[in-house]
Amino acid sequence: MTGEREVQTERDGKVGVITLDRPDKLNAYTPDMGDELVDAFRTFSADPEIGAILLTGNGRAFCAGADRAFLKGERGRNGLQIGEEHFIDGFVSELFAIETPIIAAVNGPAVGIGATMLLALDMRIASESASFGFPFAKLGLMPGMGSTVLLPAIVGLSRAKDILLSGAMLTSVEALEAGLVSRMCGDDELPETARELAHRVAGNDGSAMAASKRALAGQLGTALTNAIKDEQREAQNLAHRRVARLYSLTNDG
After folding, report:
1. What is the domain range of residue 176?
2. Residue 57 falls inside a structural domain
3. Pairing relation of β-strands 109-111 and 123-127?
4. Position 249 pLDDT exceeds 70
5. Pair 135, 167: CB distance under 8 Å
6. CATH number at residue 112
7. pLDDT band at residue 150 under the 50/70/90 scheme
8. What is the pLDDT of residue 2?
9. The pTM is what?
10. 122-135: buried (b, 16+ CB within 10 Å) or exposed (e) per residue?
11. Is 36 contained in some domain?
12. Is the pLDDT at 105 greater than 90, yes or no?
């Protein structure tokens, strides 16, 4: 998988496969990757021939978080800085509402946005070498993508607080025990295991699965919308405090 695109897609029968494809950068997230993810999810979810979507990473990482160059203000080919693209700015509600089942095959470290992007998906499988990092408290950042409501819904409120406030890095075993992932397998087994599961899911009745997803989501959709607004407000507050501290330090010097 080479080329300028940072997300590759393929059709494997009734399964749409989405692969993060910056292996030399551990699939670090950029605004261009975000735009391509939005396009890929929309394309597959609108295709009546696709019964399941599989998301994974190319190489030894799933997604090692946001690319540092872009955190420092670099703009993507789309002209956007991180946070201005729709994937971060509001796509999670649409992603959560997609009726086609979405499975994540986490093949290595999933850190920061690499971890939070997984929370809106339906099923998460981890390889033995996978890990899940939530370093936001250590970095002075606000976790986004609805994670403040999705993570508690997945692992429970007490465990979610432990993870977010401690800035935890979970091993695949710890993620399995917490319920963050539902299955774990050997590194070499992950691609085949994930595709077998995706094909099995894709063979089910699409209308029945969509109905189940809607019923399971329940009122969480409204809570998710509110959480996104709260996260964005708190992220702006944190950013303003960082600027104020920097200004104060500069003047004191």
Report:
1. 7-209
2. yes
3. unpaired
4. no
5. yes
6. 3.90.226.10
7. very high
8. 41
9. 0.93
10. bbbbbbebbbbbbb
11. yes
12. yes
